[in-house]
Amino acid sequence: MSFQGYLKTIKEKTGNGPAEFRALAEQKSFTQDRKLKPEVKAGDIVNWLKEEFDLGQGHAMAIYALLKGIKDENSQ
What we know:
By secondary structure, this protein is mainly α.
């Protein structure tokens, strides 16, 4: 599945897109100034997304990549 495919499926399932997940991560204190805090690990994000949004591992890692800056909304 492409990164865009992951984002589309996540939006359909949760109603949240990249901007909403960035805002939610900021509210949860995972990020500051749109950057993932150094002490926040992938497992922290994955566990949060699994618990609150019932996302699977792959979809949660897509959001982690987005928050980490590895990928963005235009990534394939």
